[in-house]
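STRUCTURE:
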């Protein structure tokens, strides 16, 4: 298993009239966590695109437990529990500053060859980056 945490502060524009983070923003927070997890392994999304790899979302689920509010500092914990293949499953846990879990989610992304638009296995070097945790 590999996990990575990143922090994010809720911006005013991300809240709704009730003062809660708008429900549709949580997948964007997941993306922040996912991008930073990959960066922690040495791969930015720009690197992946330069390698001819696209990673579209194939499946997404979200579970809302408690609201987050404007100016809250959130911790996004992103977890990969199994070695990637042609797909990789990311789990997410979002916490407030008090350590209360606010939200959980999961996204399954595919590795796609940008030239052929067909599924592919990730390059060996990406698998090697993950292998040390499994």
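SEQUENCE:
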């Amino acid at each position: 298993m590999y996990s990575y945490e990143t922090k994010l502060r809720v911006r005013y524009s991300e809240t709704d009239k009730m003062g809660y983070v708008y429900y549709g923003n949580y997948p964007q927070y997941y993306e922040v966590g996912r991008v930073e997890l990959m960066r922690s392994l040495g791969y930015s999304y720009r690197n992946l695109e330069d390698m001819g790899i696209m990673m579209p979302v194939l499946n997404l689920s979200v579970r809302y437990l408690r609201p987050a509010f404007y100016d809250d500092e959130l911790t996004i914990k992103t977890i990969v529990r199994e070695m990637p293949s042609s797909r990789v499953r990311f789990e997410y846990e979002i916490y407030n500053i008090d350590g209360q879990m606010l939200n959980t989610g999961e996204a399954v992304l595919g590795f796609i060859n940008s030239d052929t638009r067909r599924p592919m296995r990730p390059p060996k070097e990406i698998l090697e980056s993950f292998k040390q945790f499994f």
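REMARK: The chain has a mean pLDDT of 96.
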